[in-house]
């Protein structure tokens, strides 16, 4: 059995959520963690977690969606039933890296981290073109736990995050032919530090690249991880699912 530890299966991207979840279950996915990123999506993931037994929620504000940042909402809902993490939060300098934008993102990132620590919740971190600032921020806190979603940094940085106790999310990118860095990370980081995710609807794995992604494709990602590490896919399923259960209070 598998866990999809990061996806966005919401109405904005899917008009058949019940079917998507059913197909995931048939593919062996037993838990799906749907992550909010702005106020509207956070509200929706809370509703989905209430409606579907296999769905759990993470709430947070993405660094590029801070116009709707509502800290009071997070405080009010962080301990709702089936909210197992604060996320997706972090830093993203891909489109805008001026000083003011960086400061605003870092301030929101820290504020959400501090709320997670206050309530003993793990964080799900987005980091794009910002890996060193991300590391510097998380390193300033003790007892912080969580995952680096869709990890795309170097092996050297991966080792530093793992030393801090963080887990690394592996998604469909690992199946891409040119994903040498991600494959190097998967090969050299112990399986006990890896999580499986889809980031649906984005980053569908080969042979579905370019299509709308879905949690039912988790076994494809697991198969590639098994191939890279030269182990049985059942070991990938068992270990990564165990990792997810240890990090998130399912």
Largest sheet: 8 strands, parallel
Run of helices and strands: EHEHEHEHEHEHEHEHH
Which percent range fits the helix content? Answer: 40-55%
Oligomer: single chain
Rg for CA atoms: 17 Å
Sequence stretches where pLDDT stays below 50 over 5 or more residues:
none
Residues in β-strands, percent: 15-25%
* Strand order, sheet with most strands: 1-2-3-4-5-6-7-8
Broad shape: globular
**Kindly, what is the distance between the CA atoms of the first and last residues, rounded to a whole number of angstroms?**
14 Å
Count, helices: 9
Number of strands: 8
Average pLDDT value? 97
Alpha-beta classification: alpha/beta
Any overview of this molecule?
By secondary structure, the protein is α/β, with parallel strands linked by helices. Helix content is 42%, strand content 18%. The protein is built from nine helices and eight strands. The protein has an eight-stranded parallel sheet with strand order 1-2-3-4-5-6-7-8. β5, α5 and β6 form a beta-alpha-beta unit. α8 packs across α9 (233-247). The longest helix has 20 residues, at 99-118. The protein starts with a strand and ends with a helix.
List the helices and strands and how they pair.
Blueprint: E1 2-7, H1 17-26, E2 29-35, H2 39-51, E3 55-59, H3 71-77, E4 83-92, H4 99-118, E5 123-128, H5 131-139, E6 146-148, H6 155-163, E7 167-170, H7 180-188, E8 194-196, H8 218-229, H9 233-247
Parallel strand pairs: 1-2, 2-3, 3-4, 4-5, 5-6, 6-7, 7-8
Helix pairs in contact: 8-9
């Amino acid at each position: 059995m598998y866990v999809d530890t990061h996806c966005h299966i919401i109405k904005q991207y899917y008009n058949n959520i019940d079917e998507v979840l059913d197909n995931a279950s048939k593919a062996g996915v037993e838990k799906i963690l749907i992550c909010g990123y702005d106020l509207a999506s956070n509200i929706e993931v809370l509703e989905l977690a209430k409606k579907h037994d296999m769905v759990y929620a993470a709430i947070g504000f993405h660094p590029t969606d801070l116009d709707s940042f509502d800290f009071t909402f997070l405080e009010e809902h962080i301990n709702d039933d089936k909210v197992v993490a604060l996320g997706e939060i972090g830093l993203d300098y891909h489109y805008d890296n001026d000083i003011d934008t960086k400061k605003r993102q870092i301030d929101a990132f820290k504020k959400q981290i501090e709320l997670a620590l206050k309530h003993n919740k793990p964080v799900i971190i987005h980091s794009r073109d910002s890996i060193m600032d991300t590391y510097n921020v998380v390193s300033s806190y003790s007892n912080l736990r969580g995952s680096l979603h869709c990890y795309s940094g170097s092996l050297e940085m991966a080792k530093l995050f793992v030393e801090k106790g963080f887990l690394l999310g592996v998604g469909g990118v690992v199946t891409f032919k040119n994903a040498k860095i991600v494959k190097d990370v998967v090969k050299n980081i112990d399986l006990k530090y890896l999580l499986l995710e889809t980031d649906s609807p984005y980053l569908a794995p080969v042979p579905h690249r370019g299509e709308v992604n879905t949690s039912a494709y988790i076994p494809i990602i697991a198969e590639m991880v098994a191939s890279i590490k030269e182990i049985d896919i059942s070991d990938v399923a068992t270990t990564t699912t165990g990792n997810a259960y240890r990090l998130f209070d399912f």
